[in-house]
Amino acid sequence: MRWPSCKPILLLVPACCPVAPLNAQNLPNASAVVTLRESVSIQQPRIRLSDLLPASADQQLRQAAVAVDLGRSPEPGSFRVFTSDELSRRGASKLRVQIPEEVVVHADGFRVKTSALRRALADLKALPTRLTATEISIPEEVVTRTENAVFRVVRAEPGSDSHTVMAFVKCETRTDCGAYVARLRFSETVHWTTVEPRPAVKTFGRGTTQNSLVRPGRPASLRFDEAGMRITMPVYPLRRAAMGESVRVLDKASRRIYLARVSGENQVVAHLEEKK
Prior knowledge:
By secondary structure, the chain is mainly beta.
């Protein structure tokens, strides 16, 4: 008996393969684990996890990290600190990265151009047009997000003597910089035109003039400069103080009191620590 010839039949069974999210376990052809940088400087308005990657990170990891938004960048000249727990919660733990205990993100900026500030001062009607400031002092920490920022002088007040003026300045574009105070020095006596200067001799205790840049009950930023590092923290002044004056400030978190020097509106620089 002869059996009929049979041809083999190939059955194709489709397999269901769900797409898993891109993370440390399923990154195809992923390279070795990389460590996030502990200090980063950026200029863009928002922080991405890709900004924290070292130069050795491959392109695939960078593409995955750029999707992780860490929030707004700090103000120009300032910084923001991320803890390892915070970075993990925001998505860093899903990628093939090692997370340091802390990551500090600095906002790069451009130094204030005195020529741009002089143009803004020219529009201030309170000052005589024939006078030109021979010296303009701007706090070191003041920088702008863009190179050619345009400034606007909000107001001007008499300084510590008849040759100085305190100019309160803002950027025309709000995101370019924060408000700051510039100290102007003139070779001649300043005679105010459209406004009456407030008497600089009037005091509010301890010889503080009426041109107070810090006041009790209003938070200020205390800056520490040490060993090439810059740290800022919120504090509360214990009295009124003008530009350049010494003032004691309180850190409510630690209950410590610091002696500082006024460097701008709600800005002080640490001098030395005092025990409470």
